[in-house]
Amino acid sequence: MTSPVGLHRVLEPAGVLPQAAWRLDARPEIAPNEVRIRVERLNLDAASFRQLSVKHGGDGDAVRAEVLDIIATRGKMQNPVTGSGGMLIGTVEQAGRRSPLGLGVGERVATLVSLTLTPLVITDGLAGWDGRSEQVPCEGWAILFARSVAAVLPADLDPVLSLAVLDVCGAPALTSRVVSRYVAGRAAEGDTRPVAVAVLGGAGKSGSLSLAAARRAGAGRTVGVVPVDAERDALVAAGLADVVAVADARDPVALSTAVAAALGGPADVTVVCVDVPGCEHGAVLATTDGGTVVFFSMATSFAAAALGAEGLAADVTMLVGNGYVPGHAELALDLLRGEPGVRGLFEARLAAD
To answer: Does the pTM exceed 0.85?
Structure first.
């Protein structure tokens, strides 16, 4: 019997969901409720790619070899250190007669579920990838389950650009939801204080979209925090934040001081979009009592976040950005189309890759 969440594809250990499995069955034959995608490009998540690149000292050949080994061994792309994967684009090759996804053969789609739970086979040895960028041109196939999520690629955007946006589309959607609730709550109480939002990693993909989403949702004051002057200059030019601050998000005191100086006090909402570990305590310290910290980075240690907040006696709500919010793809693509600063940052990043 085929499971809508893919339990029938789990090879080991038995009884877990595909994301938690060590190894998946990635054979190309599909069940009636599955879809097979002819893969053309992967997008490795930032934390995973950074870890692999640092591990191998920037040696692209070594990074490529490890990615191939992970996929061949596990039947999916799941970095064993970060636990994260990414997503992909490709063309629908076969759709089972009972698939509820509504995808037709020949449609180009982006999967909006993680590679960590997607059965995947690579057939070209990643011959077209130099191992030095998050986006990975490739050939192979992937399997979607009945409970998977995918979006048809928009005709007006370059597929490579769409892939980069859709890889992080959960971040602006959840940021918008959280900020909107703060704005509405204060309005209902007659509280005229502006909602202050800090985005760590504001010049990155998820960070730039989150800044744009926060502003659209009614944030009255925003700060984008970046680690180096070059990113500060890029984010200032993009015009997505009221203030741009340079600080190491791994230094709790320096980070909280920079955020307070930029906002006139701690943030009501802090959004963590960095791709390095060790930023949990700074994010908590930068957030006001009663505020909210949203963690989108797969480099986050949630134990460190929880225990750090306890040790700081910080009364903050901490949310895990799980990558799915209804309407997230449409919202992110709309921000890309409507915010020249967002599009400029994305295009510059892709050009650099």
So the answer is: yes
